[in-house]
Amino acid sequence: MGIAERKEREKREMRELIIRTAMNLFVERGYEKTSMRAIAGAIDYSPATIYLYFKDKDEIFFAIQTKAFSHLFATMQPLLQIQNPMERLKTLGRVYVKFAMDHPQYYDVMFIMDSPMNAETNQEKWEIGKQAHSFLENTVQQCLDEGYLEGNAEKIAFLMWSMVHGMASLLIRNRLKMYDCEVWGDYQDLMNASMDVMYKALEIKKE
Question: Is 0.90 topped by the overall pTM?
């Protein structure tokens, strides 16, 4: 490996280290209570070093969100192999909740934590986030086209996202302890039963 390649690799590794460290601090302390100095101190570097990679903590926050949405979108891609759009839609909800359970810190930064006041607003930069939502909306539209559902794709997609987001948020914040696992089996059973109720309410019985 040449000097230039090694330096480029070191830059990538440093950038990833900053992102991981910042994500941990954002989740533990909150965005407002996390400073660039705190991020630098956590990895034993000077704040000046952090500024070589990110102009401010807003940019770090956006980088974490971009990484998280990219990961979520990647987990959705295998579902394209499911030809029946209604089955794909049902599986998508479960994959979404599993993503939140497997990556609670990502999910926290993506959907639960307050966004910074000066967060990136450029629509082009949010393309990866829109791709994840479009995957859901396009699947709903296919269900409409093939007669499994009726209504407006955007509104149905919002309804479904709101429900699975609520489940995911309750699960990763441990807010379901009121439910008796001896009755439900486990939280996975509770989630599946709830989702089945929603899908049955929306789905048209095909002759």
Answer: no
